[in-house]
Amino acid sequence: MSTRIFGSGIKRREDPRLITGEARYTDDIKLQGALHMAVVRSPYAHARIVSIDASAAADLPGVRAIFTGSDIGDLAGLPTAWLIPESDLKTPEHPALASDVVRYVGDGVAIVLADSRYQAQDAADAVLVDYEELPVVVDPHEAAQAGAPQLHADVEGNIAFRWAPFDKDASDAVFAAADVVVSERILQQRLLPTAMEPRAASAQYNAATGELTLWCTSQNPHIHRFIVSAVTGLPENKVRVIAPEVGGGFGSKIPCYPDEALVSWAAMKLGVPIRWAETRSENYLTTIHGRDHVQFVDMAASNDGKILGVRATVYAGMGAYLSTAAPGIPTILHGLLYVGPYTIDNVYCESIGVMTNATPTDAYRGAGRPEATFLLERMMDKVADALDMDPVALRRQNLIPPFADGYDVAAGLTYDSGDYEAAFDKALAMAGYDDFRAQQTQALQEGRYLGIGVTAYTEMCGLGPSQVAGAVGFQGGLWESATVRVTPTGKVQALIGASPHGQGSETTLAQIISSELGFPVDDIEVIHGDTTETPMGWGTYGSRTTPVTGAALAQASRKLKEKARVLAAHLMEANPDDIEYADGSFSVKGSPDQAQSIQDVALMAHLAWNMPEGMDPGFEESQFYDPPNFVYPFGTHIAIVEVDPVTGSIDLQRYIAVDDCGPQINPEIVAGQIHGGVVQGVAQALCEGVIYDDNGQLLTGTMLDYCMPKADMFPNFELGETVTPSPHHPVGVKGVGETGTIASTPTVYNAVLDALSPLGVAQIDMPLTAAKVWQAIQNANGGN
Amino acid sequence: MWPQQFDYQRADSVESALAAIGDNGKFLAGGHSLLPAMKLRLSTPDQLVDISRIDALRGISSNGNLSIGGAATHAEIAASAAVGAACPALAQACGMVGDQAVRNFGTLGGNIAHADPASDPPTALVACGATIHIQGADGSRSVGAQDFFVDLFETDLQDGELITSISLPDCSDCQCAYVKLPHPASRYAIVGVAVCLKMNGGTCAQADVAVGGATVKAVKCAGAAAALVGSSLDDAALAAAAAALSDDIGDWLTGDVAYPEAYRSAMAGVFLKRAISAASS
Ligand SMILES: Cc1cc2nc3c(=O)[nH]c(=O)nc-3n(C[C@H](O)[C@H](O)[C@H](O)COP(=O)(O)OP(=O)(O)OC[C@H]3O[C@@H](n4cnc5c(N)ncnc54)[C@H](O)[C@@H]3O)c2cc1C
Q1: Which residues, in sequence order, are CB contacts of A228 under 8 Å at separation 6+?
Q2: Which of chain A's residues have a Cβ under 8 Å away from the Cβ of B186?
Q3: pLDDT digits (tens, 9 = 90+) for A423-474
Q4: Cα B187 to ligand 1 centroid, rounded to whole Å
Q5: Looking at beta carbons, which residues of chain B come within 8 Å of A706?
Q6: CATH label, B175-280, candidates 3.60.40.10, 3.30.565.10, 3.40.50.300, 3.30.390.50
Q7: Where along chain B do its domains lie?
Q8: What pTM did the predictor assign?
Q9: What ipTM score was computed for the predicted complex, to two decimals?
């Protein structure tokens, strides 16, 4: 039975506690005598702090302390931890509280510590801050122009970096010689990650032991530990970071924020526990945003439909400060993806990181790769249009042929494995592509506007080899470690350094161990999220937990299995070479009656009454796993839409997704990841988008204005799969956490533009709201 | 967010509610507009008087006219057979408010007192000629819906006054409907249009039209109505009505970055046609 656990769609073990409200999140942890922190935040996007008067606030009931930027000199500024090389990177100071200039609405200027949350907020409202307003710039392209308001004295022209690793002359030559060049300005609008649980942080300091415990909403508690250690000056061994249940992150809980530093500092300063939890309004203002690119993109092709090159200049909005991983997102995770699944021999990317008076940006589900896939797929449709070719035929003609173990692409990556055309064909068959084109023509005669979008994609995830991390300036490794610990009674505790937060990894990883080692899956516990209890790990992001932690667990399990085989042989007085294993049981070849179950062996290893010569007691193994390469899932997504030309409303009628993430450990969980990813990606195409006014005020500051996707916007998804194992991974799996987001945005965008093409509409900035679609139709019709 | 400190009191009669409200108090009905505003500290009452359990404010009765209690919920109204028969447009409007949880809490009285321009029920009330019944410390009075809505978040309601009921003329011999273009984020109306038509054979004998969402308040549209009366609701009449409608609402138009005035104005015309088609079917 246990051998079939791999590939079985068992229910997520996380769900009962999540669904019944029994899960314990950071803010559920009550700390005796805790004070509550409220942050006084700037109402201006750019202003000089003239003075702060906290005297009235300090007199309010329950208020214990108020600190401003000038009080926290012993708390270091927040570091940027992805220092991309050869980009002239500037890392402006990011103090936890601004003391002279505020640079976005929401920038912290003071903290209030009070007995209750209400009192803390009352006092925060009563802190009087006198500001002198400064000019504001929120658009990254405008901010990079001469004469734009300047954010940081040490970031000249607001340019934090300029990353352009490819050969410009070679690119120029390709474009100069090409038959066809298509161009577009693409706006990758800002998005709000909107995890279900807003951020929270609580800290407790024990002066006698010098130990700080920080509970926080983290995707990577070990990274939080060393950043908090660095900013507070506490040695790393005296900092314990616990990420209890974390209600989603989508990248937004990777960074270390001022709030986490401030609760830690205040707990140390005041000697009492400090609690903080953001409201949704605060979340929208101060938790990182995603995307925010203004891209100028060109694609070159020959008349017979060979794609020759792609190039882009990207103005990537960084917001007011460089968040933890921000510089790596529009560069390493973006420009290296410009080949996609196609035989494109020449790529060029110049990515310019621009400081703006807006919330800092950082990794948001897909992180750089959706922005790359979108531009490729948009330009493919434009080339097809320019050449009057079927966009499907154009894509097929340019797909990389199948490969099982390594394929070098012009962007410098080596893809692990791929069979793009198989997924492409399968999706097209599911969609009935040829029939659809006939229906579309028919519908048009009836005045109905149907459209189809087809995206072929591959992406780089399972981040990643540590050597590569070092070469690209990531200030950490990207391996994972895990311990498989078996108790005397044969129950398993798997301790992992990664920190899942909604993905279902506790289930999936238990399935890996079960299938390797034969323990029933329900006997296996996966423990994560506490730097004291778990081994070191770099965290859960970049679709890496199953590929990297899963590999570490598979290998640790294999070590244990080998120990078990030798011990079983010893116990049965047989030669280890004569031991056969099946379904959690070791037997001697030829005498199947004599057998030792894995549980028997575990018990005997613990008792250690009768160990083979030289074998240590206990039944536990650890494994550090550094992946030799990224993994590259791929697939084809197809959307069919109908646009109401009278209102501009879009009806998403069908959505087909064929994804290949190698062998699926749990198909239900894979489907869940694809569903969620597709919904988020479609929402970028259709409805989500941050709007700032010219003063840098967030107009989409609540869900009244910021459009979260809703279930009734979507048809039932039609999922399919192909299975192409990763050659370098112990169980062949690839990541699937971000593919939905990466593939779906251009799929739906292209479908809508396909529907609108008879009306002469060729471009609309995302999101494709009814008003924008309607306006584009009016403009194309000259208002008629 | 964390509201400022306030006292809470539950009233069991209209009189006790009126007596308790004080200078800086607010009536609390479903709380679905008031509590969010308090959490954002946009509203800072020092006293909440909960009126949601006052029997006299609950319930729906119909004896000729339809009378709806000021604290009747959207869900009750949407599900009421009496409302469905006498004024389907109002039942439809209440049925399109938010989601089921919002409709279970939110009340008609609270909705119109709040007078959010993007609300649904006010548009139906204005088109269908509703009367708002109000009681204050000095006695009671009644106001036509058209006069009740004054401007953006502004009504004829004075401080300390309570909406006790909303009455509607029986409309069972007319054809009425409410349709809306919901905002994709909030599902409030970008545009809502209500029509109430009396047909005589194939000819429109009487018409009432109101628009909300696109306007700072629910606006009665006499020009559009006039264009429909006497017609057979043919395409030419519908086009004329849509054209007149943009004049009717011109002074009251509102919009935002995402859904500008021009779009809302155009959609008012589109949804007028859709409302007429819904009413006629
Ligand atoms: C998520 C969400 C979605 C929504 N979507 C929609 C929508 O699509 N369409 C729509 O129309 N509305 C929508 N609403 C608003 C909803 O209709 C509310 O119910 C309504 O706006 C307020 O009604 P309430 O009973 O909750 O009033 P409350 O919030 O309790 O009160 C609102 C105001 O009215 C006053 N008040 C309440 N009752 C009376 C009374 N009887 N007499 C005098 N003053 C009174 C209060 O003092 C307060 O000032 C939505 C609300 C939410 C939270």
Answers
A1: A212, A214, A234, A239, A241, A256, A260, A261, A264
A2: 703-705
A3: 999 999 999 999 999 999 999 999 999 999 999 999 999 998 999 999 999 9
A4: 14
A5: 185
A6: 3.30.390.50
A7: 7-42, 63-168, 175-280
A8: 0.97
A9: 0.96
